[in-house]
Each structure stands twice: as structure tokens, then as C-alpha cells.
Amino acid sequence: MLKFLLRRTLQSAVALLALVTVVFFLARLTGDPVDLFLPLEATEEARARVAAQYGFDQPIPVQYVRYLGGVLSLDFGPSIFQGRPAIDPVLEAFPVTLMLALVTMSIAAALAILVGAVAAYRPDGVFDRIASVVTLIGASTPDFWLAIVAILFFSVSLGLLPTSGTGGIAFWVLPVGVLLTRPLGVLTQVVRSSFLNALSAPYVRTARAKGASTRRVIFVHALRNALLPVITVAGDLLAGFLNGAVVVETIFGWPGIGHLMISSIRQRDFAVVQAAILVTAVAVFVMNILIDFAYARLDPRVSVRQAKQ
Amino acid sequence: MEYRGLPRVIAGPAVLAISLLAAASLHAKPVTIVVDTEPDQLDPCQIDKSQVGPVIKSNVIETLTEIDPFDGTVLPRLATEWVRLDATTWQFDLRGGVTFHDGSPLTAEAVAVSMRRTLVPELSCESALKYFAAIKLTAEPVDDDTVRFTTDIPVEILPTMMASVGISSLATPLNEITRAPIGTGPYVLSEWVPGQRVVLSAYPGYWGGPAEVTGATYVWRQDSAVRAAMVAAGEADIAPRIAVQDATDGSMDFAYSNAVTTSFRIDGAIAPLDDVRVRRAANLAIDRDALRGTLFSAEAIPAAQQVPPGATGYNPELTPYAFDPGEARRLLAAARADGAPVDTEIVLIGRYNIYSNAEEVVQAVQAMLADVGFKTSIKMTDSAEWFKLALKPFAEGRAPNIFQTGHDNTMGDAVFTVPAKYASTERQATMTVPELDRLIAEASVASGEERRAKFAEALRMIHEDIVPDIILFHMVEFARVNPRITYVPNVSTGTALQLRQISFK
């Protein structure tokens, strides 16, 4: 297992190096951050001074080497706009996104397994048809529209929930509700398809022949095998959330990593952009390792080594 | 409105109503303000930045003077009086009995150090870059209550400019940006949770006595619809800068001038735009009434100059060009007959999101220009490209262009607009008119009625003789105000939302 971890870490280090390099150069293609930092009335001298202060006057290769040196010591330099180390806002924002992503995916996965399994047990039945329509609508509804409509209905018209912000459980309802509609729709379809395959497998027929109850057939015999593709899709969706649920974070005022990245890109706050992308990339790497272990745990035929080969 | 969990919320309307009544009676004094952007800093020298000023200017950090939002006059704040000793020296008397939030007294030394700090190059303070870049200024205490400012050139409006200089405690680090401002204002910064909220609480030692509002929580939501919804739901008391399409409730939504003027700069150095008849024709082609109430707010004021009404030097005699496509066509024909290459394609350079509906405005202007015979194309730019095109040095061999822009002047004097926009030595002007340069230079150092008259004449010359731009509107914004409070949004709302101006009904 240690060898596996070591190999994956080395592979990921190469990928991360490529990523930070691409991000470094792409960020600089967006233009000069000094233009946005200083007012239009600022003199050429002031622009030159700020450029020198943050090292933007140096040749790009020199900036790149300095940046790589800083990354190794987790020093991404100062945020030009916030006047503090760039890693600080990133480390404040990432846990917010992580929590939102984990809660949303947990609820989405649990609901998808329940709905998908029941729908698959009687394919083309009433429940299956209703579930298909509802989940397809959920998967294709634009989240920015749903978010605004939800705020106007539940918060302004009914006064039941806070419009936005962070706090107790009530503050989670709308963001999580909006955020989970798409993964819930996608996952339900995956679970249904996966269960249909599992329920037609010989071991399920054997279980039924032995007189096992419907609940036992679904949730004991079929569930474990049906979960493998679900984990793959859920992992992809979770990786997307870790990069930031930008729309939901922006509309509901959640101070997450997606919101931070977008505002930093707009401001051309290079140091924050680079730090945020590296932190999320590392998080995705860690999550992939965990998925590998989950695979091995669920399917004894798959060892950790095989899972990734 | 406070939410402590779903179970309580769904416990029943009666519980909710009782909670609201209790909250109203027990916590009536603090307010919540929802702005569009989190402050990136709260440094005293950045109070003129749009995301900093509304939170701390005049609330936490005060200035020697302030600008009356309704008539543009200079009012005393931390200074009670000021006098010009000679052409380059001003002396300010400080208010007595004022203390900073750390308990130290307001002294001339603190004012002098605050001024010097504002000018420290490494801090890139907004007011230093905008207003003091061309001036060498020294600040020296005369005694504990008197401070003297000396400049290398005559500065007629130093009292006005002092409204942009935040005065902070001597404990403020001189060469570093601070996120914990220590001022003399009626409120103390008591909490800043990055990404979530800034909280101000009343400063009991404030020289002006207690205010009705005992504290304020600032939160930020980027989406205008959400900001408006927060006030409608009772979660916030004021939401400045909500979009016109979200200002749908006349009982809560108030229009106010934001001192911004929208315009298109005409590149008068390139043919055919170097012909004043062509520039005038472009102005006559614009139907401002068609733009107002559609792409611009119905409350926007058609403009003839970039200086906003009420500012020193504003010329009330000027009227916007009337929509006259017939006269525009006649002027173009005359220019064409004299050899002007009127059929050359002119590039309309727009900027995404410079204001609401910016791209649509460019398209509408293109259609209006085409209607009188202009040939144009559109080039939309992001802020990076726009900045490069806005300033000299302009590219050699560039196409003739008409450039979408906007300008704000919250300081109440034409000097903050006219030189930067029209003096040929500055970086935004496309044309060189020696007579205008001379007039601007004279106006900038004149005072009183002479100053007002010279700037007014400069603006007349710009509008009627030179025609270097198409001025569109003095803009308005909307603020949504909770019916439980009384607050009149004004031109300073976007730069200094003073909590002391709020009262409860």
C-alpha cells in the first residue's frame, strides 16, 4: 500500500507541476494586474513602482522560477489586493467549499441510491417514470435560475428560510437544495442503470429463489455491486464541487473557493489564483486516492493496485 | 431577522411572529447593510476605494473636511476652520476633545503623520494616486491643534482634497497596509470575518455624541437580485447599487445620483473624426430619449458635460445636443464635400460591464450613427484591453474610434474631471487645443467665482467648439431601503454610507 501511495504521489507531483506551470502562464495572458489595481488617474511612475513592488517588472521566466521556489515552501507571495499572504484567503475559503461539497454529495448519493434502487426494482413502473422525469428535470435545470427562484419563493414570499449567508441549519437548506439537484439527477440515473444490471445477475436470481425479501435483495445483494459505477460518477461530481460551486457560492454568499477564484481572476490577483488552484488540485488528488480505497473495499476482486492500473 | 435552525422556523407562524416582534424591540438599533463586494482592505488610506469607503469612511475613519452630498460645499469634520496663509500654504484648526478608538487624542502630529502615510508610495493609496500625484506636499504640526500643509504649487482646493485623506491613530503602521483601522469615527471596527461579515459597533467616546444606529453588520452578495431580496425579506436594512430591473418596489427603492457620467470619447486626432462637423454630427445622431428608460434608467439625466450638477465649475447653461438626424446628415455631407473621408469605418470600442447594458448601448449607438450615414464596426474589450486603449501613448496608425467610457466625480469640483479628460498633457485626451489647455491651467489655480467661471467656460468650449466626446447621461443608481428605517440615499452613498444619517421610524 505504501508503494502504491508513493507511486500515486509521484504521478500527481508531475501533474501538479504541469498544472501550476499552465496556470502561471495562462494567468499572465489575461493582462497586467497593475491596470486593475491602480485608478485610471495613476501616473506611469506609480504603475512602474507597483509592478516592481510585486515583481511584475521582471522577465516572465524569472517570475516563474521565483514562483516555483515559493510553491515549494508554500509561499505564494502576497495578494496584491488584500495586502496579505495569498494562501490566507485560500485556506479560509477551502473548508467552506469542502463542507458544502461533502454535505451535498452525501445527501445526493443517499437519495439517489434510494430512488434509483426502487425505480430499478420495477422498471417502467409508475414510480420509475415519475423518478426519471423529475431527475432529468433536476439534472438539466440551470442552478442560477433555480437559486434565484428559490430565494424569491422560500425567503421573500414565504419567509421560511434565510435568503443567503452562513449560519445554522436553515442557511444550508437552499444552497444544498439547489446544488444537489444536478448530481441527484445524474446519480439517480446511474444507480437505476447499475441496479438493473445487478438485479438481472445470477446471484440475485439465486437470492430470490432462496426466498429473500425484496428489501434484502435490493439493499444487501444488489447494492454492493451496483455501487461501483456510482462511486466513479460521484467522485467526478465531487471533484467538480471541490473546484468550487461558483454559482451557488456567489448567489448565496458562501465564502468558498469557487467564489474566491472567480473574483481573483477578475482582479488578476495572480498569487491568490495560483494558490487556490494548487490547493484544490491537491484536494482532488487526495479524493482520488480515497476513491481507489473505496473501490478496493467494496469489491474484493479489486486490489488497490489493480484499481488504478 | 435571525435564523437559528429549520426546526424553529417551521415551528409555526406564531412563534415566528413573536420572535420577530421580540427582535424588533430588543435589537432595533443595529442595522445590516448588504453591499456588492467584500472590502479587500480596510486601510485608512484607501477610504476612496469603492469597496472600502462605504464601510469605513466617516464611520470608522474621518477626514478633516467632507463634501456636502447635496450641494458640493466643503464642510468641517475633524477640522473646524481652515485658512490659506499664502499661495502654497494652508492651515487647519483641529476640533478639540476628539480621541481615537485606542484612546489617544487627535493631535496635529497624528494628522501630519496620516498625511505622510497617505503619500507613502508603497501603500498605493487611492487618494494619493488620484489627487496628490502631481503635488509635492508636506504636513507639519504648528501646535497640538493646528496643522499646516505646504505645497510646491498653488492648490486652491486643498480643503476639498482633504475630504479624501483618512486620519488614523499614530499606532497605525506607517509603511504597511493595515486591516485594523483605528480612527476617530462614531463606530469602531469590532469584527471582520473574511468572506462573511464586517461588524462595526458604536464608539462611546465619539465627539459628536451617540447616534440612533448602535452598530452595523456589513455582508456582501454579488447578485443584485439577492441584495434586493435580503431587504425585502427583512434581513438587511440598506442595499445600495441594486440593478434597475430589481428596483421593482416603489416603497423601498430609491434612485440617487452616483456622480457618474457616461460618455463616448471621440478620437479627434484621426480623420474623419478630426473634423468638428463629423464629431458634431455624431452627437446629433444620438437619441437620448430612446436610450433612457430602456438601456439606461428612466431617472438618468441627459448630460452635456462630464462634470456632475452641483460641482464647482458645472456649467448650467449647457444643454445636451438635440436628436437631429437631418442636421447630422447635412454636416456629414458638408464634411464629405470638403474632402473629409466620412466613409471610413469608425471603430466603436466598448467595454463589457463598464455599466449595466454596456454592450447593448454600443449596439444602439452604432445603429443611430448608421442611420445618419456613419460606417462603424464594434470592438468589445475586457478591462485589460480597455485600459490600454484608454491612455496615452495611443497606438500609431490606429483606426478612427469612438470609445465607451464613464467617469465619476464625487469630490464636487471640476478639477477632478476636466484636466484629466481634456488637457492635452494628460493621458486621456486625444486632441491638443492650446487655448483649452491655457484655460484649464488658469481655472485649476483660480479660486472662488473666478474658478467657477473659468471651468464653466472651459466646459462650454469643450461642448460647443471642440466636441471631443458624446456625453450621454448623469447616471443614477438605486438603493433598496428597509421601511423600518429612514435613510435618503445620496451621491455619497456609494463612497461613504454614513450610519449616523440613518434613523428608525
Based on the structure given, which CATH architecture of the largest domain in chain B is correct? 3-Layer(aba) Sandwich
| N to C succession of SSEs of chain A | HHHHHHHHHHHHHH
Structural category of chain B: alpha+beta
- Mean pLDDT metric of chain A: 85
Question: What is the terminal separation of chain B in angstroms?
Answer: 17 Å
Distance between the termini of chain A: 14 Å
Show unreliable segments of chain B: 1-27
Rounded average pLDDT of chain B: 90
How many strand units of chain B? Answer: 19
In the CATH hierarchy, the third-tier topology of the largest domain in chain B is known as D-Maltodextrin-Binding Protein, domain 2
Helix content of chain A: over 70%
Overview of the structural elements:
- Chain A has helices at 2-29, 33-37, 44-53, 60-72, 87-121, 126-140, 143-157, 170-199, 202-209, 214-242, 246-252, 257-267, 270-298, 304-307.
- By secondary structure, chain A is mainly alpha-helical.
- Chain A folds into two domains: 2-72, no CATH class; 87-308, MetI-like fold (Orthogonal Bundle), CATH 1.10.3720.10.
- Chain B is of the alpha+beta class and 505 residues long.
- Chain B has two domains: 13-222 and 482-504, Periplasmic binding protein-like II (D-Maltodextrin-Binding Protein, domain 2), CATH 3.40.190.10; 257-477, Dipeptide-binding Protein, Domain 3 (Dipeptide-binding Protein, domain 3), CATH 3.10.105.10.
- In chain B, 27% of the residues lie in helices and 23% in strands.
- Chain B has helices at 6-9, 13-26, 53-56, 108-118, 126-131, 158-161, 224-232, 276-284, 288-291, 325-337, 358-372, 383-390, 418-422, 434-445, 448-466, and strands at 31-35, 65-67, 74-76, 79-86, 89-94, 137-143, 146-151, 187-193, 197-202, 215-220, 238-242, 253-266, 301-302, 346-351, 376-381, 401-408, 469-481, 485-486, 503-504.
- In chain B, strands 11, 12, 13, 14, 15, 16 and 17 form a seven-stranded mixed β-sheet that branches.
- Chains A and B meet through α2, α3, α5, α7 and α8 of A and α1, α5, α7 and α12 of B.
